[in-house]
Amino acid sequence: MTAAAEAPRSWGGSLGAFRHRSYTIFWFGALISSTGTWLGNLTVPYVLYQQTQSAVWVGLAAAAQFGPAFILAPLGGSLADTRDRRKLLLWTQAGLGVIALLMWAQWASGLHEPLLLILLLTCFGVLNGMNNPAWQSLVNDLVPREDVTSAVTLNSLQFNLARAIGPALGGVLLATLGATWAFFFNALSFAIVVVSLLFVRRHPSRAITRAGGRFAAQWKDALAYIGGTRAMILAIVLCCVVGVLGNPIFSLTVVFAETVFDTGPVGLGLLTAALGAGAVGYALAGAIVRSRRSLGRRAAAAMIALGLALCLIGVVPTLVLGIVAAMAVGAAFLAAFATLNTTIQLLAPDQLRGRVLAARHMVFSASIAVGVLLCGILTDVWGVQWATIAFGAALVVVALLVALLPGWRFSLLDQASASPDAPISESDSPL
């Protein structure tokens, strides 16, 4: 960390943010925390499916984890715009760590009750709804404006590195030490990120203008802005489409592993890690080669690619081919989500940033909950392959309809390119 933080000013491009000590500490802490979170995101559906043999329970777990954000994100957005974001994150991350520790205690004690695990996940979702807007906004506070693009790229990279490392580590732990140790290491990762936040400070050049007024007035301003900006409406709606139709694959890899590819925890870990590896490949390629396509064209191409990749993973017969298809899904998902999320962040004014991101997180979390639950039901009825193919085909159809819809075409997203505001983060854990 010290070497990275003391890097010479000549550093630029995608590595420029690493010359700032606070950002570097935050990045490594976030990498460890995200790795633990993805380890937990593999362990929870695995143990639930082992206990119940039902994809509906897997869907309920995702709904419990992300559903509360629909209710709590507005409060999180206002807190991010009116409070010290670092101190807010210290409290929320500590609370999330306590809940993760309770999950470990439940499993270590032998109390393998699905309903209790769902209850703990709901509490986790409540705190995460208040945590997420501040987490995203803090990235912007740790570097000067000229290094925000670098911070975006590196933040996206750490999130997707964790998506690759966490499930692979989880597969090994589940196959060797069992679920109890997987839950324990997830809880430990929160302790590490809390310690890292103690050493993080806002960059001197980043003056924070905190919002005033009452909660209702704050959100009246934010919603008036969102409702009056067609490009923002389209970007948020398309984020929801990606959440409903594209995200369920991340929770249902356990069903693919057991019912389609007939593999154990290690194969499950590799399959889930492949989703992250594909995203890492996209993030690295994006850091090296800057696309010349407009935001609208990038969003359209990414959504169609994601739909086709989902159809592909729905038809491949072997684990090896499934891993290849999962990498394609991971790359396409990040391409779609990062493009839409960056559009939202470019459009959002600085003084409304926390609340706009909270609104996006709120509806996106709700879309994840709906999508995973719906796909879980269809999986129990049709099988996971046909359910995934149906969702992929629907995603392609929606993308084609938007491309042809007068007044609401993808080109509307190009308005974000003219905004003077820089994006905060291209990565946001849907899980």
Automatic annotation (TrEMBL):
Residues 22-411 form the Major facilitator superfamily (MFS) profile domain. It is found in: Cell membrane. Pfam families: MFS_3. The keyword Transport applies. Keywords: Cell membrane, Membrane, Transmembrane, Transmembrane helix, Transport. The keyword DNA repair does not apply. The chain crosses the membrane at residues 25-49, 55-76, 88-108, 181-201, 222-246, 266-289, 301-320, 326-347, 359-379, 385-405. CDD domains: MFS_MefA_like. InterPro entries: MFS_dom, MFS_trans_sf, TM_effector. It is a multi-pass membrane protein. PROSITE patterns: MFS. This is MFS transporter. It comes from Microbacterium gallinarum. The lineage of its organism: Bacteria, Bacillati, Actinomycetota, Actinomycetes, Micrococcales.
